[in-house]
User: Fold this.
Amino acid sequence: MLHDLPALKAANPLLPFMQQDGHIFRRVKHEQWTCLCPFHAETTPSFHVWESDHHYHCYGCGEHGTIIDYVMKKTGCGEREAIAKLAEKSPHLHSGYTPPAPTPVAPVLHLPLPAAQFTDWQDACDALLHNPREVERLANWRGFSPDTILGAAKAQLMAVLPYFGAQREAFLVEAPAQWFTDPLIAELNGPQQLLPHSIHYRLAPHTPNNERDKASWRYDHRVKPSKSWPFLWGNPIGARWLFILEGQWDALALADLCGWHTTDSLPPATAIIGLRGATSWKLMLDAAHGLPLDPKATAIAIGDADTAGAKWYEKDGFLATLEGRVARLITVMPTHPGAKDFNDITKAGVLTGSDFLAWIRRRLIQHQPVKRPKLTFVQWCKAAAIRDDPTGIAARCVVRDTARPRGRVSPIHWRTHWRTQRLPESDRQALHKILHAWHTHQPPSNLNLLNHDNHSPLP
Assistant:
């Protein structure tokens, strides 16, 4: 008998199904729960279940799947037998019963860019390719190699074209085919395909429709809004290496710095993501409409050393959310006098691509996944507070802090808390050292502290 698999999964939600098996869950965040993994022995939970799409992933052993995979793994049966077992629990699916339709969610994306507008966009990209003077102007202005500007135009990701009475630099907005409202689009293009959705224009200061002293970014008003969908250099769907920055210029600056002048020259399974706006990450990581990130991916988040960059580290902010979606998260906030973002740093010429990638490789070696310590950080500090050395002094500061985070929280939350306390730099460094010691299982009674800060500037 043929079965409607989506209806079968909806009739057997994974979380209550596992709870009936005796698994005890703890909520991690909205619609995300964790418990001890049923597939390998562990003492600290690393098995996560997402209620929104009923799938699981274990960060300890790598098991990943849906309720069908869970039944197959637990019972040792094949896929057909697992489906039959679930169908027995849902007899109403075979008796003409139609489950109630879920409450519709307002679609984030609609139809791709209209054909006529996309043709105009392609013509503008082609015109930029054959305009060496304009390519040189853009390259000198942003501090890029002309090859990167040409690569962006060749990939049809960047152009210069008229908008509101002036020539504007603009970027293409691409989105996964499966998130468009017309199901035929996904069927014809495949779930891994990116499609043109809108155009993002830069309105220079004191130009038509922007009288302000700073540049303004606008989405094409002639198409449905894309709600701050990110700029994509390469295809992030299924990519195992993700570089995430705070804008499309920063994304191109990283590509230029590393010599990835075209999307085809990116290393395998690598993509660069440029967020648009302070809250665009919420759409990118949205459970229903976000990018389908590989849970085994490594993300390298490069923030700006300003107020907007500091917001990444807030509790329940971008980095805390991203950390639960990927296997490893490396963060860096590079700084340089007079530079406000990553593009400014690369333009200043103080950083080379080889040095930057070598630094990332060292960080990846340092950031090997480890099991969570059994002690909470506060418990660790209470044990270390008896020491009569800098470690004991820092530990006592944590214990006496009445405004400290409660429960078992990630190191990101502690660093954010100390940043908001406006502590002297020497105190913050001492606290970061003991936090690293706790996170890497160094016992509180015998420490060999490392000079390690997960958010320090580039060397």
